Amino acid sequence: MGTAAEMLRQARASIGIARRPNVITREYANRHGSEFLTAAWCDMAVTYWARHSGNTAAVLPGGDRAYTVWHAQDFQKAGRWYKGTAANVDAAKPGDIVFFDWGGADSVGAIDHVGVIEKALGGGRVQTIEGNTGDQCLRRVRSYTVIAGYGRPKYDAPKPNYWDVQSTVAGRRVRVPWATPFLKRGMEGARVRWLQDALKGLGYSIPTAGDDFGPITDAALRDFQSKHRDERGQKLEQDGIYGHHSARALFIAHGGNAEDAV
């Protein structure tokens, strides 16, 4: 099986698909019949993302779905269904499969539409990615008032992509990100935040706000590279690119065991 992150990666890759037939309806029709070529395709999109992200069993507990009511019932039967209350919507997780009832009845039998939750926004709202919304695949912001409920797939736990080390320098636990893929100026995200925090733990002054790899992070990394060597004893290249050698050196600088830096 796959992860919620992989499910969302596939959904994001579909943003911009429009009209029908399209790649999603064609694939579904190839398996289930030509009548699906031009049918409503919101749940076909969820099926497509699940199949292409290795999440078939998690997202489709009853098999491929084009009919949203049956899909929601699959989650009910699996004991993984959450009603669309404001509190439940605020507790939604990325990758949850969200079902809509435009009439606001919150009845599974009245479900009209489906998408995948990208993130909870608070206030009973979620950001979603949906196929067949205006005959396109788009991001939307939806309120609990039109959410009948959501199913929570049993995704695999995400694989770690950092070393968790009790830093002998910072005197606290630090996440030192792995360099897969490399990090460099212009990038953003959680791994950049971990890199910034690990550099701060060594005494570098980096603003706490934001998660972008900007000029301050670039300068701090280059300075770190100028003062450290790789596992072969060679000086790190001062290129501002957080690659494998720099990652291992940063892990070891925080007191990590060199034998674990693989």
From TrEMBL:
Q: For the Peptidase C51 domain, which residue ranges apply?
A: 40-132
Xref: SUPFAM superfamilies: Cysteine proteinases, PGBD-like
Which Pfam family, just one, is annotated for this protein? PG_binding_1
Domain named Peptidoglycan binding-like: which ranges? 189-243
- Protein name, entry field: CHAP domain-containing protein
- What is the top-level taxon of the source organism? Bacteria
